[in-house]
Batch of 2 targets.
Target 1
Amino acid sequence: MKEKYLKMSYECLSAIGNSFELESMMSEIVITFYQSTKALYVGYYDDYRAIKPLISAGKEMDFVLKTYPQECLLQDEAKNYFIFLPLKAGFIKFVYSKEVAINEIYAMLCNFKRKINFAISACEGVKELQGLNENLESRITQAVKKIREHEEMLVLQSKNAIMGEMLEMIAHQWRQPITSIGMISNNMLFNIIMSEDEPLDKEFFKNDIDEIDKQIKYLSHTIDDFRSFFKESKTKEAVQIDSVLHRSVSLIKKQLEHSSIKVEINNCCDDLIINTYKNELNQVLLNILNNAKDAFETQKNNNKKITISTFTKDNNLFIEIKDNAGGISEDVIHKIFEPYFSTKKEKNGTGLGLYMSKIILQKHLNSEMFFRNEDGGAVFSIVMPVKK
Ligand SMILES: Nc1ncnc2c1ncn2[C@@H]1O[C@H](COP(=O)(O)OP(=O)(O)O)[C@@H](O)[C@H]1O
Ligand SMILES: [Mg+2]
């Protein structure tokens, strides 16, 4: 007797959890339980209120339950046994003839309830996972799209910020020639008034007009310079690193002079020609130089100096821009390349300069930028691969 129940238990147990798809798993359970326990009927109902079974074996026999189904063993008028086994999802109804040893079977079925519930949970988990997997691709596409949009917005914002800095640079470059023109024209007017009835010295006037012309050419030249500088490079160009460095410095030179900041260029790669997007590299250098200039504003320093050095090592060109303006506090160093990080709230810092510079270097110039504090100042180091 005992052996018979052991075998039955074993057969039923091995039918549980063989599939991760609810319907096929419950089919196996219903059929195996029906056969092994010699039931008259086994039906799985996926809802408490369901009238029709989702899966069944044997001839369906009705037993109208008046109450909410609980785990229970009941007998109908014909003395057939009905077992209701509520599960995590729905319930199973078993019907047995009055000849079977119902108590053993009922105990066994109740024992398996937890196991069946576990298996149902596993099926639900797998189903959820499949759903997630199906959605994953579209969710990734959406996330990537969002990132792209964000990046585009950052580029736009940083362009606006650069534009503001550019206007400031132009204003500085123009201050002196405009003053010169003003002085020359004043001088001319003074001469006209003083000459009274005497004939005017044509040669003298010609010299003044030449000088004015020279200054106007300079004004127009600076505007052209800035305009071409902020245009995106269409193609890579072979450029001498020395000319790139001097060009960037020349654009901000007046402002640096105005703040008594000296610039020294130690170019150890005089004859090195690199193939690169010239304007983009210039923009990066200008961002770094602008930051150094800003850093000096909060410093009392009688020897303000920016040193730009270049050297090559292991097929890489290093451009290092070093200042002595105090460097960056250790607690924020890890944030300086993040977008919107700025310590210049009162100056309307955008916090986009270094972020954009890094993006330009990585995406367009196949290069990297690193930072370190050294000798009481900041050092930004650009590393570009070069072909020998
Ligand atoms: N040479 C430097 N010396 C000191 N701090 C610097 C220097 N360069 C950058 N920083 C710090 O890095 C921050 C981020 O720079 P950046 O991205 O250009 O934004 P912003 O100039 O608009 O503040 C600055 O606010 C400043 O705190
Ligand atoms: Mg900046």
Target 2
Amino acid sequence: MIGQTFIFGKPVEGEYFTDRENESKRLAANFRGGVSTFLLSPRRWGKTSLVKKVMGEVESDTLKVVFVDVFKCKSPIEFAEALASAVLSQTASRVEEFMENAKAFLGRINLGINLSPDLASSFDIKLGLSDDKTDISNALNIPETIAKKKNIRLVVCIDEFQQIGEFTDSVYFQKQLRTVWQHQQNVTYCMFGSKKHMMEELFDTPEKAFFKFGDIIYLKTIPLSYWTEYISRKFEGAGKKISNGQIERICETVNYHSSYVQQLCWYVFLSSTDIVSSEDIDNAVLELILQNTALYESWTENLSAYQMRFLTAVADGINEGLSSAEVIGRYRLGTSANVVAVKKSLLDKNLVYTENKKVYLSDPVLGMWLRR
Ligand SMILES: Nc1ncnc2c1ncn2[C@@H]1O[C@H](COP(=O)(O)OP(=O)(O)OP(=O)(O)O)[C@@H](O)[C@H]1O
Ligand SMILES: [Mg+2]
């Protein structure tokens, strides 16, 4: 079978997955030990891949992991419904069991789509909940009810969790969630998302609903030694030769961003013959920027001139002191109050993130595109 050599832009597993050894151990220990976890990283660093891998490792007769993406949820009721339907469907072995449980624990069921008799793959169903408080709290209690009934422990993994920050009445709902969750004895939650700044807003100070609710894991980049093993194995497998120095150049070019390392490798792979040359890498870098241009245009088309100049400054490597007179003058950023507002708006758009008070572009290739 001819497999793809490098995979990017979607969760990876098996031979396409490298490292994450420490994070896997810690997450697995949390899942087994009943410790809820927040997992944060910029886009496409490998959160979903990591969670899915650990899911596969820890599942047993007495521990079941459920996965739900709440990216599309716009309100507490949609969130509660997504959670309840994921738990009901992913813990049921047959459609009948799913229906029975939905009826028994929600008091009603009003299914929006036809169910396939095969429950092996999870599916999305509308439970037809109403928007009142009882329905929401019933739905939020489904994980605990099911876990007790089946005499198992449950881990519920919630992708794009920062979405709840967007709901109207968000703060009230966050408090409600925390109250319900902290009384559940048999359920552990793992919340992850790529909007670091929005995720942090859920737990960063004592007033926040999820303050000290669980362990916090900041995903790091995968180090060079793992990439070297991975990338040379892939090239060698196809009869091509790439040097360690070239691998390092590839990783450095995209700041060790997991998905871009794999994407850039793919273009190097395509443009090279049996021995990779430095021109092959030059061409691949151009191709990487070209391939992403439409995306960056759409991200930036509605930005103000101030926002663009702020991004350009960060792309030029100015990670701190952005409101100093010198930087404001050089990049025409207006006033220091303006810089604060612009930074906040770009954080909200997830175009930049902060770490130790320094500002970074969420997307390293966007920086290359901006500098051109
Ligand atoms: N452990 C890994 N080993 C090798 N490549 C990886 C690994 N984790 C992630 N990648 C690369 O990053 C890409 C994105 O991975 P994944 O979808 O898991 O990230 P994510 O953080 O969940 O992304 P998003 O922010 O879009 O939800 C993968 O397609 C792959 O190219
Ligand atoms: Mg993901």
